């Protein structure tokens, strides 16, 4: 029998946590009442949305879990400023559909700027908590898309946070992993919906920087580079599919574009575990076949996600339980080629398969308290296979990749795992101890807790005495 209080993240499934109770509030007032109730009972509170994040920030053992995925109210759309008030539990497809419905017959149609890639059923609250980014070539992290938000703090007080009101909380909460309260709604900055053309070619790292610069100068708005993942090939982490999206005249006719269906994605995932060269070639062939195709700037960011795909895959392959764990690393764009060559040399002998990998670009974040984009960075994403009963090889591989990124003056994303050493955390996030101190000051009773926060509280427990 399934235990309804046993929670886990959707993707890696490496964070099983048993909470004490689960509530699904639908409004800010319900959240405030639940926080006050937790305070009276001395109960810690954890916060989740779609449960995709892999770092343990959604759950805490023994906590009252507030599942905010039912907070889906859409407020008014300010067409003059391009801002919408949206419930923190809304997923990206729900928000896009609601915006389209609200603006039937209007021009321009306001829509989202960016979202996480790879999965769609992720909530706005989760995007804010992790300060996410997408495939925008000139975009800053998600904090730049947020005009304001409504927060219920540790005392149950409702606060409206923006760059002018409770500005300190605005900086702490975005990218604050739920440590300072429950975000119930977000005033989101939007962009006009436009048509874009996909440009696709297969190239190599030594040519990537120049080609991307050319495309950005020509106006490309989105793009990425999906690199080869077969460690036995000379192409490993070097050859890849460069895709960018360029605005086109809005009167151009949209034609139906062939997309990969769920069964085709399932086969690609199987090949990524069994024949990684063939997986890359299959993927590249499909994408090359879409060169020149037209897309909308919002819906082209949506993707197929296969829930719990690894269960069937493990049965098919006759292997033990395993899943993929993501890490995201940031390096200066001019260091990207050297970083990737060094990463290839480190990963080849480890026996930890790369199942998926991509490179994106991000602009500097000058606002959040824990900025991961301290400079304009190239973002390198590795999705590594992790055997559940033998995790140490993957743990060491992730730590080695973080060391490598730091050696190039880079950083890494805190969202995906808690396997970094303290010295790595401190080097990547010099303000992390101050962040924990702010958490203690603003929530002295530890009302908001998670396995993520508990891990780092313990890791830094003696930092003030050193």
UniProtKB/TrEMBL annotation:
<dbReference type="InterPro" id="IPR016164">
    <property type="entry name" value="FAD-linked_Oxase-like_C"/>
</dbReference>
<feature type="transmembrane region" description="Helical">
    <location>
        <begin position="169"/>
        <end position="191"/>
    </location>
</feature>
<dbReference type="InterPro" id="IPR016169">
    <property type="entry name" value="FAD-bd_PCMH_sub2"/>
</dbReference>
<dbReference type="InterPro" id="IPR036318">
    <property type="entry name" value="FAD-bd_PCMH-like_sf"/>
</dbReference>
<protein>
    <submittedName>
        <fullName>FAD-binding oxidoreductase</fullName>
    </submittedName>
</protein>
<keyword id="KW-0274">FAD</keyword>
<dbReference type="InterPro" id="IPR016167">
    <property type="entry name" value="FAD-bd_PCMH_sub1"/>
</dbReference>
<dbReference type="InterPro" id="IPR010031">
    <property type="entry name" value="FAD_lactone_oxidase-like"/>
</dbReference>
<dbReference type="InterPro" id="IPR016166">
    <property type="entry name" value="FAD-bd_PCMH"/>
</dbReference>
<keyword id="KW-0285">Flavoprotein</keyword>
<dbReference type="InterPro" id="IPR006094">
    <property type="entry name" value="Oxid_FAD_bind_N"/>
</dbReference>
<feature type="domain" description="FAD-binding PCMH-type">
    <location>
        <begin position="14"/>
        <end position="193"/>
    </location>
</feature>
<dbReference type="Pfam" id="PF01565">
    <property type="entry name" value="FAD_binding_4"/>
</dbReference>
<keyword id="KW-0472">Membrane</keyword>
<keyword id="KW-1133">Transmembrane helix</keyword>
<keyword id="KW-0812">Transmembrane</keyword>
């Amino acid at each position: 029998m399934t235990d309804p209080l046993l929670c886990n993240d959707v993707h890696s499934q490496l964070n099983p946590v048993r909470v004490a109770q689960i509530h699904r509030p639908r409004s800010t007032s319900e959240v405030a009442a639940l926080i006050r109730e937790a305070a009276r009972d001395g109960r810690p509170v954890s916060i989740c949305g779609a449960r995709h994040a892999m770092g343990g920030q959604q759950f805490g053992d023994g906590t009252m879990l507030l599942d905010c995925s039912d907070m889906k109210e859409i407020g008014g759309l300010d067409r003059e400023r391009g801002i919408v008030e949206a419930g923190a539990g809304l997923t990206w497809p729900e928000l896009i559909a609601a915006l389209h419905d609200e603006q039937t017959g209007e021009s321009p149609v306001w829509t989202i700027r960016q979202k996480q890639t790879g999965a769609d059923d992720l909530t706005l609250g989760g995007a804010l908590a992790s300060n996410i980014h997408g495939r925008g070539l000139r975009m800053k992290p998600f904090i730049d898309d947020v005009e304001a938000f409504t927060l219920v703090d540790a005392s149950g007080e409702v606060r409206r946070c923006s760059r002018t009101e409770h500005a300190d909380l605005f900086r702490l909460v975005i990218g604050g992993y739920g440590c300072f309260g429950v975000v119930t709604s977000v005033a989101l900055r939007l962009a006009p919906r436009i048509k874009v053309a996909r440009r696709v070619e297969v190239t190599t790292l030594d040519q990537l920087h120049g080609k991307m610069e050319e495309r950005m100068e020509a106006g490309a708005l989105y793009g990425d580079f999906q690199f080869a993942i077969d460690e036995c090939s000379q192409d490993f982490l070097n050859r890849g599919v460069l895709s960018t999206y360029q605005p086109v005249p809005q009167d151009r006719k949209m034609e139906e574009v062939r997309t990969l269906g769920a069964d085709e994605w399932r086969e690609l995932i199987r090949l990524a575990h069994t024949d990684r060269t063939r997986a890359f070639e299959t993927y590249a062939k499909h994408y090359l076949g879409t060169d020149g195709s037209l897309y909308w700037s919002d819906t082209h960011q949506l993707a197929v996600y296969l829930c719990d795909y690894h269960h069937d895959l493990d049965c098919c392959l006759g292997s033990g339980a395993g899943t993929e764990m993501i890490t995201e690393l940031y390096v200066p764009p001019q260091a990207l080629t050297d970083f990737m060559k060094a990463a290839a040399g480190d990963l080849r002998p480890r026996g930890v398969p790369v199942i998926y990998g991509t490179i994106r670009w991000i602009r500097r974040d000058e606002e959040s308290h824990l900025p991961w984009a301290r400079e304009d960075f190239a973002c390198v994403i590795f999705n590594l296979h992790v055997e559940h009963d033998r995790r140490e090889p993957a743990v060491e591989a992730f730590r080695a990749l973080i060391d490598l990124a730091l050696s190039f003056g880079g950083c890494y994303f805190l969202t995906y795992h808690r396997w970094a050493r303290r010295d790595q955390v401190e080097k990547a996030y010099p303000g992390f101890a101050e962040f924990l101190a702010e958490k203690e000051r603003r929530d002295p009773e530890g009302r908001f807790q998670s396995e993520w926060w508990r891990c780092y509280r313990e890791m830094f427990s003696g930092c003030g005495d050193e």
